[in-house]
Amino acid sequence: MASLRLLSVFLCQLLVLLFLFDPSSAQGLKVGFYKDTCPRAEEIVRRTTAQYVTHLPSLAAPLLRLHFHDCFVRGCDGSVLLNATSANPNPEKTAIPNQSLDGFFVVDVAKSRLEKECPGVVSCADILALVARDAVKLVNGPFWDVPTGRRDGTVSLALESLANLPPPFFNITSLKLSFLSKGLSVKDLVVLSGGHTIGQSHCPSFTNRLYNFTGKGDSDPSLDSNYVPRLKSACQPGDTTTQVEMDPGSYRTFDASYYKLVAKRRGLFQSDSALLNDAETKAYVFEAAGSGSTFFKDFGVSMVNMGNIGVLTGTAGEIRKHCAFVN
């Protein structure tokens, strides 16, 4: 009886979460939100992003990652951008998963230019969403229309990042639950994982798969045994500084080659390999790895879905003057 009551409570809590994070309930967002109040807003963000990514294509991945790490904690409210202060010494930025984030300066430059163009109008949360889209496009990825109208949050807590960001060692069950709790589908999970086609990762994110995986001095059996020596040559035990390409040979170009790697059991993270342990995600992996893939179109749709998570609109939150500090 007690177990039934606990199950009932869990289901009620899950329904509340789904309501709060349902992408379809992101009222107040629309494409062209700044058409009248700041007509050049998207152009300014696009030119600022191009100024940096054109000269440093490897910056595209960190900018995409910033948006993801923002949306999965408190929703897409720009809370990941806030600096530590005496009043809040441990914002999201200080959490272990966020200590390797990069690209904040691109957002700051875009914000500075927007404040000169139309003070107090464009939110940092919207800048993040636009920068992520523009960065992906600049490295040969898809373009999608970004609904805007988000406002900025005023709360940022490191502990919430630890509780909400799916780590690279998650299995497929944990990944599905994590995405479901944000109102995202299993398809969104496998499509957004494709963002790993660009970028690099530090060794500690995956070396557990290479050395003593089960306590017997072995490697992760879900990882191609012929690929293990290559990764070991790059990452020695205890190496915390070396970075490895997530999509070798293509890490600065947005394409579908990530799925070809996963299909060959060469995904870098356990969470990549986990996509082969579910019928729906596995089917998409092999479909995206083949010709005629709909990955680019799907990625834009899933990015919009993610960008709708827990947004603040209307009079909620604020429009920050500087993205690193609340007003």
UniProtKB/TrEMBL annotation:
Listed Pfam families: peroxidase
GO CC annotations, alphabetized: extracellular region; plant-type cell wall
UniProt key word Disulfide bond: yes
Name assigned to this protein: Peroxidase
Keyword Signal: yes
CDD domains in the record: secretory_peroxidase
Cofactor(s) essential for the protein: Ca(2+); heme b
Binding site for Ca(2+) 1: 70, 73, 75, 77, 79, 92
Disulphide connectivity of cysteines: 38-118, 71-76, 124-323, 203-235
UniProt xrefs under SUPFAM superfamilies: Heme-dependent peroxidases
Example GO biological process: hydrogen peroxide catabolic process
Positions annotated to bind Ca(2+) 2: 197, 247, 255
Record-listed heme b binding positions: 196
Cofactor binding summary note: Binds 2 calcium ions per subunit.
A single MF term (Gene Ontology): heme binding
Function: Removal of H(2)O(2), oxidation of toxic reductants, biosynthesis and degradation of lignin, suberization, auxin catabolism, response to environmental stresses such as wounding, pathogen attack and oxidative stress. These functions might be dependent on each isozyme/isoform in each plant tissue.
Primary site of residence: secreted
PROSITE patterns: PEROXIDASE_1, PEROXIDASE_2, PEROXIDASE_4
Active site: 69 (proton acceptor)
Gene3D superfamilies named in the record: 1.10.520.10, Peroxidase, domain 2
Catalytic activity annotation: 2 a phenolic donor + H2O2 = 2 a phenolic radical donor + 2 H2O
EC assignment: 1.11.1.7
Residues the entry annotates as binding substrate: 166
Family the entry assigns: Belongs to the peroxidase family. Ascorbate peroxidase subfamily. Belongs to the peroxidase family. Classical plant (class III) peroxidase subfamily.
Residues annotated as signal peptide: 1-26
